[in-house]
Amino acid sequence: MKGLSYEDLLHYLSLIRAGYVPQLFSIRMQDPSIVFELLAKGGAAALLYDPDCEPLVKQCPLPTISISGVVGKTPPDISMSTVTTSANGDQVLVIFHTSGSTSLPKLVPQTVRWLECLIRKHQYDDIRDSPDSVISAIGSHAHLGNTIIFAVALAAGSCLLLPTNIPYSPLQLDDMITNGGLTILSIFPGLLVPMFAEARHNDAFFNKLLGLEKINFAGHTLEPKEEAWARDNGLKLINFYGSTEIGASMMSTSTSPYVTPLAESGCEFIPFGETLSGSDQLFQLIIPAESDDCPHPSLRNKSDGKFHTGDVFQRVGKDQYVYRGRVDDTIEMQLGQALDAGSLEADVMKICEDDLISAVSVIGSGRLSPAMVVEPKDNAILEAGDDKLLALKNQIIFRTALFQKQKYAHVWISDARLIFVVAKGTLPRTPKGNVMRKAVEKMFAKDLDECFPTTSET
């Protein structure tokens, strides 16, 4: 389903009310063979589809039913049992899917206990929204993000506003605020950037953003310079951390960018990587089995029964954390040293994004030294000749030299031969726009094979 309309939300919730378990697929999942495989894994009995998807479901091995025109029809004279809270907390209510950025999407069944916990997290007075609030949906109802926003609205008794399409323009957001009464914007960081760009030169639009109760963003990190600009100019940013598996788990305040675990979140932080002193220590987030927001047993670690998020944080204060990437953001070098590739990428972007590069991926797992693959700010540099290309690489090395020399030697990238420049859009990305490091590593495996024997001899 498209998942952007009231009718789509009604189908989703009505199926649960009728005693079925909806398995939700976004219309963006365009490969029907993947949908059919996931239907089989989920034990589906039938496929309900948006009429626009009809060409994609012709080969479906299950019965198919178009959802066109269901709203407005006279329902059959069937009485249903009284709505009560299920006594079985382990009962599966709905099945979501991961994004499938590295492999086939995984089924994410969510239970009564899990969903009740999600709603309870937002009922505490210190974070609960006003009943008068109007909060925007963040995406398709087929994804967990909208269920989180719906839970937030339920906890407060507030109103949910559904955008007609996503992404939407600053003009459309202006209309949502002016004519829709929007007071809380919920949005992915990548869609927030063009809103800030418009606000920088449009005072009227900026003032409308300034007048919002808050701006919730989630899904991945907001570019540091964008977040700094927004906070410095008084916009009330709230950073939510969560995932399809654990829901909303931590959030920041409008005055601090650091996230804090929500009440009833089962956040457990275990040391990750090298044991370091002070605030430099990294921690991996896991959710213990006894916590109500621990996802379905099928998703838990087999050895300890807990859910390992794979996300890494740095503790910066009491119950205050900053996201530092994924477990697989850490590259193990040839001599066993650990390299925090995610942090290195963030440092490079901070220094070089304004005028030199638009994206970077640090690779080099199992090598003597890391390497860097960058997309330039302007593709014209790729046609400007070897001297210009070398100058770009040397400029990157020059700018990053200071912070690199503050780190261990195995982190340094000081040889232009270890910087590869590719056209914009070349680096493989997830549906959320994040660069897939492992895929980049495979893409440049031969280049690294050729490069490292040479660089190790110099």
Automatic annotation (TrEMBL):
Could you tell me which InterPro entries the record lists for this protein? Answer: AMP-binding_CS, AMP-dep_synth/lig_dom
The molecular function terms of the Gene Ontology recorded here are: medium-chain fatty acid-CoA ligase activity
Name a single GO biological process: fatty acid metabolic process
Residue ranges occupied by any AMP-dependent synthetase/ligase domain in the UniProt entry: 83-252
Q: Which family does it belong to?
A: Belongs to the ATP-dependent AMP-binding enzyme family.
* The name this protein goes by in its record: AMP-dependent synthetase/ligase domain-containing protein
